[in-house]
Amino acid sequence: MSSGEFGSAATPPGPRIGADEWVASVGARRSSGGPGDRLRRELERIPQPAGFAIAAAVAATLPFITQNGYVLRISIETLTYMLLAIGLNVVVGWAGMLDLGYVAFYGFGAYGYAMLSSSQFNVHWPTLAVIPLITLATVALGFVVALPSRRLSGDYLAIVTLFFGQLFVTVTDNGQSMSLLGFSHDVNVTNGPNGIANVDPFHLFGHNLEQLQGYYWVALGFFVTVLGVLYLVSTSLTGRA
């Protein structure tokens, strides 16, 4: 057999090594030149900061479009989950660490705020004092969890974070009767599975937020702020590294 005949041998059928056939097929369909593909290319020309600003401006008009409580509640929950998603992307997407207990930090912040601004312990601190304090406390908790797991990766890190998440669920679900290692009387800390009720409304700039519209704008403001900070981090020298 000549070298030319050997070089022209057909590639055996089957999936290519190191290539995702489904991703390649989707990419080929997107490059088909259809209306959807042209629209996508036009949208990609818009700078990301401008795209974020346009999307935020459009989203901010929702309370003017509808006063439906169900729609606003779902929108607030959607913004909350979007915040959780971009936060989880920092750990799993950027850092590549499989964190299965990530939601416990969200729960820690929620319970911490409720304890300091509700009738649970008759503590009613102002919103602008509680939020920074709880943020710093959650950061400190993150360092505490990271210290014993800083040399772990892969499945081992996932197991540690899974334990942390399950520990948080167990403590909060049974926190209606807690003591200090049995040396003190029982205290209702988390109100068990029912959670902490009668949480104080947000008090911002001299006004109490009583309507869903106000909470929607606050949630949108937090999301835009966090998204902007993460964008600046990802485009900085340290973020790219």
Write the layout of secondary structure elements.
Layout: H1 3-7, H2 21-30, H3 35-44, H4 48-60, H5 62-65, H6 69-94, H7 102-116, E1 117-118, E2 123-124, H8 127-149, H9 154-173, E3 203-204, E4 207-208, H10 212-235, H11 237-240
Antiparallel strand pairs: 1-2, 3-4
Helix pairs in contact: 4-10, 6-10, 7-8, 7-9
> For the largest beta sheet, what order do the strands appear in spatially?
1-2
Strand content: under 5%
Our Rg estimate from Cα atoms comes to: 25 Å
**How far is the N terminus from the C terminus?**
51 Å
Gross geometry: globular
For the largest beta-sheet, the strand count, sense and barrel status come to: 2 strands, antiparallel
What is the string of SSEs from the N terminus onward? Answer: HHHHHHHEEHHEEHH
Number of domains: 2
Derived structural class: mainly alpha
Provide the low-confidence segments as ranges. Answer: none
Number of DSSP-assigned strands: 4
Helix segment count? 11
